[in-house]
Amino acid sequence: ELIEQGRREAEQRARTIAEELIEQGRREAEERARTKAEEVIEQGRREAEERARTMAEELIQRSRLQGQIQLCQQLLGLPLNQELEGKEPPELETLLAELQARLRQRMK
Q1: How far apart are CA 64 and CA 79, in angstroms?
Q2: Each residue of 42-94: pLDDT tens digit?
Q3: What is the value of pTM for the model shown?
Q4: Alpha carbon 55 to chain centroid distance?
Q5: What's the DSSP call for residue 79?
Q6: Which residues, including other chains, have CB under 8 Å from residue 100's CB and lie 6 or more apart?
Q7: First and final CA of the chain: distance in angstroms?
Q8: CA-based R_g, the chain, Å
Q9: Phi-psi region at 88: left, alpha or beta (left = phi > 0; alpha = psi -120 to 50)
């Protein structure tokens, strides 16, 4: 009977240790998952901010170029080009350079 009691106590201790190890592993895995999720969220936030900043800079550049083009068109007495919205900055820069060259010619 003492042997049986000792066996039961040993089994209970082993079960308790196993449950504690399982719980510790669960907590550690949960913490790693939480940390990884926070890192992914932060990375996504930074990438979204960078994309938004880039888009804003492009819009500002495009608007500035469009305004300069329209000013040149007005000074040259040309009708305002309503199709500037769909043009890319390099195309706008080329058009602006052409208009500025025409303005310089006119001022000579």
Answers
A1: 19
A2: 999 999 999 999 999 999 999 999 999 999 999 999 998 778 888 899 999 99
A3: 0.62
A4: 11
A5: P
A6: 72
A7: 118
A8: 35
A9: beta
